[in-house]
Predict the 3D structure of the following.
Amino acid sequence: MQGGAGSSGGDFGNTDVSMATDTQPAVMDSVAMDDGNCGATSVVAEQVVLEEFIEIEEEVTTVEPVAFYIMLDQSFSMVPLWFGAVAGIKAFVTDPMSDGIDVALDFFPGFGMIRGCDGSGYENPHIPMGRLPGHAPAITSTLDSLLGPTGIGTPIEGALRGATAFCANFQAQNPDEKCIAVLVTDGSPSGCQEDPNALVSIVAQAFSGGVITYGVGLAGSDFTLLNRISQEGGADDCDPGAQYACDVTASADQLVLALNRIRAAVTNTVTRVETVTTVVETPLACEWELPPPDSINQGFDKMQVNVKLSATELGAKQLSYVESESACAADAWYYDDATAPTRIIACPDTCSVIESSTGAAVDILLGCPTLVLE
């Protein structure tokens, strides 16, 4: 059995034989040598493949990490809006476009928790920060477990102080990641500091330290205050209409649209050029690997190797062995290393014949004395 050779003939990279299993030596086909006195076996000879390591430049696009700390109003006035708002948040965290974003969630005035106007308590979110999409189930299951809003008052001061303090600390610990405070409410300040100027000064000071704050207003919100919070908090214009803050007064479940707009505004896609190393494999037309010694029943003897060339216009002929390339002649081959050979190489003239002949095939024959060029 034979494998092809030559660019105009067939694939001359392999000779054709019965394949061995991993645990048993190959059973080779018997091949009669030209002198008729010796029976050789034909073994698989893998074509030599030259591996070249080259460096190439390619563009790599990544999304810079960003974190959202969502502070959701859970005062009693949120009762008719609660489940719509929850649906919006759940839609946001399960949206594939949010993958890679970190999200934490808290509520004000807080579910039975002691929270201070100075932000104490709010800097520890009810749902800790985690990366989407893996963190989404924790957020959705927690939201599903809450029966609804029960808080009294709308202490926006404590919520802003806690959220911006958390983000400042988060950014200090994660200098490569922005943290965005998102205040979601349906009302005006009630409890703690209620002076709009004082509240706006909280987010302005936070922005001077690198923390951005967005205001999101549900039905009943004080947009005069929320617009100022967004503007002084360093946020982009979130609403295509008259407001600057995110306006979701039409329907609480549209909160997802506001969060999507914030995501688009604060997420940066970065494209950079990286140098990577790749391997280019080039099969060598007239070189073959010697089989491992244990693949042949009788072992390997470098002077019991022969090479047979067959082609449509040439018939079959046995090639002669020479000691080196410098001793090459027509119809000859040599070892890459005459002392410790690992490859069989066709002489240049022979290689030209292999490449130009129709249906050229090369057999590596083992077990009979090597035909040496005299």
